[in-house]
Each structure stands twice: as C-alpha cells, then as structure tokens.
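Field reference: sequence -> structure
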Amino acid sequence: MNFQQEMKARKKMVESALDIMLPGSEVEPVSIHQAMRYAVLNGGKRLRPILVMEGARLGGKDMEKVLPLACAVELIHCFSLVHDDLPAMDDDDLRRGKPTCHKVFGEAMAILAGDALLVRAFELSANMLQDSSLPTENVLWAWNELATATGSRGMIAGQVIDLESENKSVDGDTLRVMHQKKTGALIKAALKSGAIVSGADEEQLQALEEFAGHFGLAFQITDDILDVEGDERITGKKSGSDAAGNKATYVSVFGLSRANQMAEECIEQAIRSLDIFGEEGWFLKELARSVLGRRS
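Structure field:
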C-alpha cells in the first residue's frame, strides 16, 4: 500500500470511529449533539488522530487499539477550531468549506459544543483505563500529555499570545513560541501519546518528539503560506484572513520566500530525526514530505 492509500485507509478508520464515539444527533438535548457532530463530521484531514495511530504502530501496538485516544485528540482539535472561529476570537465564517459552527447554531450553542467536545475527549481517554492490555501508568501518562498540550501552557497559551499580538510588531522568537504552543503542542502530544500507550522506549519517544516539533512548525508555516497563496475552493476558508486581521504570520514576519525555505528546512530536520526507525519510519517521512505540497 502506498502513502496516499494508507492515509485514505486510516482516515476512513478515524471517520467511522468518530461517528460511533460521538452521541447520536437524536440524543437529547438534540441541539447540542447536532452541533457537536456538525463541528467534527464536516471533513478535515484527521492528521492528529492519524499521528496517534502511527505512534502506536511504531511502538508495537495495533492501531485499532488506540482509536479511542485518536478520536479524543481529534475532538480536542475540533473544540479548539469551534472556539477559534467565534466572533470574539478569529471571527471566521467558513471552516472546511462550510459555515462555521456558530454561523449555523449560534454563538452560545457553539461555545457549549466546543466545551462538550473537550469533555467527551477526556471521557474517551479515561475509558481506555478499562483496557487491561494497556498499562494503566501509560494511559495516565498519555492523558497527562494531552492535558498539558491543550491547556494554558500549551494550545490555549498559543491562542492567548496570538490574541495579544494582534496589531503589534512581533519578532521571530515570539512567533515561533506562539505556534509551538498553538499548533505544535497538540501535534506533538498526538504522536507521543500513541507511542506512550503502546510502550515505546525512551529513545523512540525522544525521536518522535523531535520529529513532531519540526513537523508541526513546518505545518504551521505552510498554513501561513496557504493564507496568502491558497485557493479558497480547496482550502475551505477565506484567503487573506490573517492579513485582514493584522495577525503575525511567518509570511508577514519573514516574507514569502524565506517562509517557504524555512518550511523545507523543518521537513529535512523532521525526516532526519526518524533515523532510528529505519524503514519503519517510512509513513512519517512521506507525511512530512507531503506538507510541502499541501493545498489545504
């Protein structure tokens, strides 16, 4: 199976699991569960849950074993998108080519849907403690990694820095820290948590953490580039929104040419960090290379 086929197969696994693990749209109160499902089952690359699955595979576990954890990570990601899109935050009307959650269900219901997705994520993570084949200490460790990556020292910290940086001159160091937290923290926790649950050793975890750091930065840089060069019909969101909101990006701080160069450098470093896995690292290497050609 080639890389694209493998990505498609894993995405299908995640989509099926998400449909099962979210409350049905007929469950009362219907409005909140419809909003939750709308926010999650509306497309997306499913990158973060796929990273959880790959971390588990490299650690020696069947990918299906960590599907609840993979879905939990995707729910955390979707919660952050619902809240980021709100008028008080980024004030976006489109997400994945469709009206944002608050445009369809109203701001109050969107806030509650985001909250509910976060709670459901940690419910799924906690349920993994019932699997006797997974060491309890590893599940708790992975759970802690996700909580730290999500909270005020991780993803939320990045959003705070982003908000406080609007209409201000931001240097490269501040920009890097902002995106390491806002985007990179959850990407790193996704890959690492899957490996932790599977019992990966310290050397493997260190290599995966290094990969995720470089990969996450490259992903954010290309995201900034797409805001300038991307086709709205493919990206599913309005182009130029960062510039319109006076947001600091790698393009605004370093320029388009240097931003492209930085993304390439990050991918080279990410691939080198996988040397200890030998041929088993093929999937992450191909995933890293695919970032440079992303269109959405």
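Note: The chain has a mean pLDDT of 93.
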